[in-house]
Design brief:
single chain; 90 residues; alpha+beta; four-stranded antiparallel sheet; 39% strand
């Protein structure tokens, strides 16, 4: 039993040393679709309302950017909200 405890302690120390020796991976933040999410920088510009004719009705589409948290290294995450409202066509 005593040999097992010594082996376990030595194995735990070896694992700890090996874990500390691994280089840290630098984060690479990117977005597959920059039209929906952006990382860092200033707030992207908001678009004004756009009217889309859907045939029997129209949609008023408004897109607004908002800060939606931060990355671990302090960059702002910008996400786009798309607000849609059915309106009569003119």
């Amino acid at each position: 039993m005593n040999r097992f405890c010594v082996f376990f302690v030595c194995a735990a120390i070896a694992v700890t040393i090996a874990g500390c020796g691994v280089p840290t991976v630098n984060p690479n933040y990117s977005s597959a679709n920059p039209d929906l999410m952006r990382i860092g920088g200033e707030k992207p510009g908001d678009k004004g309302p756009e009217i889309v004719n859907m045939g029997s009705y129209c949609l008023s589409v408004t897109e607004k950017w908002k800060a939606d948290g931060k990355t671990p290294d302090g960059q702002t995450l910008w996400t786009k909200d798309s607000l849609r409202k059915a309106i009569p066509c003119r």
